[in-house]
Design brief:
It is built from 12 helices and 2 strands; from the N terminus they run H-H-E-E-H-H-H-H-H-H-H-H-H-H. It starts with 10 loop residues before the first helix and ends with a helix. By secondary structure, it is mostly helical. The protein has one domain: Orthogonal Bundle (MetI-like fold). The protein has a two-stranded antiparallel ribbon with strand order 1-2. Part of the binding-protein-dependent transport system for glutamine; probably responsible for the translocation of the substrate across the membrane. This is Amino acid ABC transporter membrane protein 2, PAAT family. Residues 66-282 form the ABC transmembrane type-1 domain.
């Protein structure tokens, strides 16, 4: 194991930083002088928040798109976790049938382009299955407070079916990768842990539940955090089915204002803030688990 030394700032780091700053400054100067583009940053804030005479300051297009991205990613990840855990457990099962089913699901979903899956599941789920449930009509017939809750947690009634189809599609896609994370975490636990549990008279599922999974979970935290961030980034593809998340709102705003660079730089910063927050929280959780776990 490599020694865990605290990194130190040296002269070479200073030189490299200065060279990097000089390169960035030169690049910025060349862009400013050579790019025939009129920057117009002062109009961007009004697309983040706007003033309403009744409600005061309220979110505008980009922040509303960010909220939709958060809701979409949250529900997709919440649905993907149990599906992925089941797929991972099936891939480590002693029964051949379970291994075949889990392996087929993971292999199929991981080797298909997500954009193709979006179209397949959207036209199958949203056009063939969800219309029979009449979810939009149920929401419209519900009390006003329940409609507000559904809009806050999911989407407006006219977008509900497409939003649910996007959640299911994204969840099934991400669950395939979570299944591989779970499988690798379980297989990473030493064989002696299994043997010790069996020596105590525990059944396989008891060893898995009480001995293996607690150890595997700590190893899964970093890749699961990475998958959560990947879910946020992958949510951008549902813009092709008119889900009004951050990327969709960015495209609409760019088409209306022609502020290409300003809009996409702002969208990039919003995505970066969201994904970095998830990474920071995952790091805190991993550090806390390391402190509380027995040495």
């Amino acid at each position: 194991m490599l020694p865990n030394h605290r990194p130190r700032w040296g002269q070479l780091d200073t030189v490299l930083l200065l060279l990097l700053l000089c390169a960035l400054g030169y690049l910025g100067m060349r862009i400013h002088t050579g790019l025939e583009y009129r920057w117009n940053w002062q109009v961007i804030p009004q697309y983040l928040v706007r003033y309403d005479p009744v409600d005061g300051w309220v979110p505008n297009l980009l922040i509303l798109g960010l909220f939709t991205t958060i809701r979409l990613s949250f529900w997709s990840l919440l649905l993907a976790l149990p599906i992925g855990v089941i797929a991972g457990l099936m891939r480590t099962s002693n029964h051949l049938f379970n291994r075949l089913v889990g392996g087929t699901y993971v292999t199929l979903l991981r080797n298909l382009p997500p954009l193709v899956l979006i179209f397949i599941f959207y036209f199958f789920i949203s056009d063939q299955i969800l219309p029979f449930l009449n979810l939009g009509e149920w929401v419209l017939a519900a009390p006003h407070w329940l409609q507000q809750v559904a809009t806050l947690l999911l989407a407006p009634s006219d977008q509900l079916e497409a939003f649910i189809a996007a959640i299911i599609t994204l969840a099934l896609f991400e669950a395939a990768y979570i299944g591989e994370i779970v499988r690798a975490g379980i297989n990473g636990v030493e064989t002696g842990q299994w043997e010790a549990g069996r020596a105590l008279g525990m059944r396989r599922w008891q060893v898995l539940q009480s001995v293996v999974m607690p150890q595997a979970f700590q190893r899964m935290i970093p890749p699961l955090a990475g998958q959560a961030i990947s879910t946020i980034k992958d949510s951008a593809i549902v813009s092709v089915i008119s889900i009004q998340e951050l990327t969709f709102q960015g495209m609409e705003l760019m088409a209306a204002t022609y502020l290409t660079f300003e809009v996409w730089i702002t969208v990039t910063v919003l995505y970066l803030l969201l994904t970095y927050s998830c990474s920071w929280l995952a790091g805190k959780l991993e550090l806390r688990l390391q402190r509380t776990s027995p040495s």
